[in-house]
Structure formats: structure tokens, C-alpha cells
Amino acid sequence: MSARIIDGVALGKAIRAEVATEVAKLSASGRRPGLAVVLVGEHPASKAYVGSKEKACQEAGMHSVKITRPETIGEAELLDIVAQLNADPSIHGILVQLPLPKHMDSDKVLNSIDPLKDVDGFHPMNVGKLVIGDPTALRPCTPYGVQQMLIRSGIETKGAHAVIVGRSTIVGKPMANLLIQQGPGGDATVTVCHSRTRDLPAVCRSADILVAAIGKAEFVTADFVRPGAVVIDVGINRVDDASLPKGYRLTGHHEIMIPLLAALLVEAGE
Q: Is the whole-model pTM more than 0.90?
């Protein structure tokens, strides 16, 4: 059986076009979706990711606001910024870019975001809605993006054994919850693996669908994968590469995640 590559770039472009159409409709009715991104500090990866979000919003015709503050900002000031955005009717989605400086309580900051504007899907209310299968939940864009890749690529999840490597609250756990829900892209039998899983390669070889979300480059190797399995690499990792001018390369597939974030923002705006 020859391998087939799932083209995340093509899927991302298609979703961007769909989002732009919906944004135009909402804007015509006087409800232009607005996203506010709060960036604290000078973390290079965070700055690049925020820039991608800003560009995606502009391309889709959305209202975009970027708020930057130095790493020395106090937690109380950041909470005040979030409170102002919660009250701003032109803002329908709020993202506080992680990681935050060590002197801040990330959970406290994220939990202060209005659940209806929590497009990252990190607020306990949205986490709970996702667990019980409430369709009004705002879902984290990375696992939602993986699910959309499976659906749009015609990969059957019903009855399939899906193995997720990684149990983070950002990807692993919500990915499991999405795959076990009833409906398209769901109804799978799900196994979640982690650092304490015994004989991880053997567990992975039992998968029809294998999702690598462990945050470590090239961790999943050929001996983890059985013939015919679908493999989705969630992580974006920096790998040293002396052959490149920058001295490194990025591995992983992220082209679909930004468009999915925009799609979630449209849902919030509606």
C-alpha cells in the first residue's frame, strides 16, 4: 500500500476561504468578528505565532487587535486588560498567548476570560462542555484541526482505534474527547498514552489512527506504526540543521491550525 500525504496546506486554504465568506456575511449585517491577542514578553516563537494569527485575521477580513506588554508587567495589570476586552463589544475572541512569565498564574489569567470569548477553549466552562458533548463548546483549535483533517480527508473514525501520544490539556485530552463524541470525526475507540505507558511502541502499533502530540521531534518512528495506519503529527518542533542559514528547521504540520482558529472566532461572533 502506497502512502498518502494529507495536505494540511490545501485544507488550510480551503478553510480560510470558507471563513472569509462567513466573515463577509457577518460584517454585512454589522457584526464583524474581532479577535484580541495579548502578548507578554519577547518569546520568539510566541511572537511568530501571534503574527500568523494577525495575518490570518486580516486575510479573512476580521477586526484584529494586538496588545503587547513587557515581561515585567504585573498580574493585576494583565487581568485588568482581560477585563477590558471582556467588556468590549467589538471583540468576540480573546487569546492570551502562552507561555506567560513565571511570576504569573496562567490558570488564573485564562479563567478570567469570558467563556463566550475564550476561542482557545481553555476556560473550565468550555472544557466541561466539550467533555459532555455540548455543541456550543469553543474547542481548542489544534485538536479541532486534527479532527477536521480526518473528516475532510475522508478518513473513517467510526469504530476506529485512535491512539493519542500525549495527555496535555491543550491537545491530548481535548483530542480524546473530540474523537469519542458521537457524529462525524468521532465514534472512535480512544487510547491516550503518556510517559508512564508500558511498551508504547506496541500500543501505537495497534492504532488505526495515531496522533503524535508529545512535543518532541521525531519521537514516533517507523516501528510505532502498523501498515495502513493514519498518522497525524501535531507538534511544531525546532530541530537543529546546520545545512540551513538559520541553523534549524521547524518540523510538524501547523498550516491548518490558524484557519481553524479563525473559524472558531466566527462561531464566537455568531
A: no
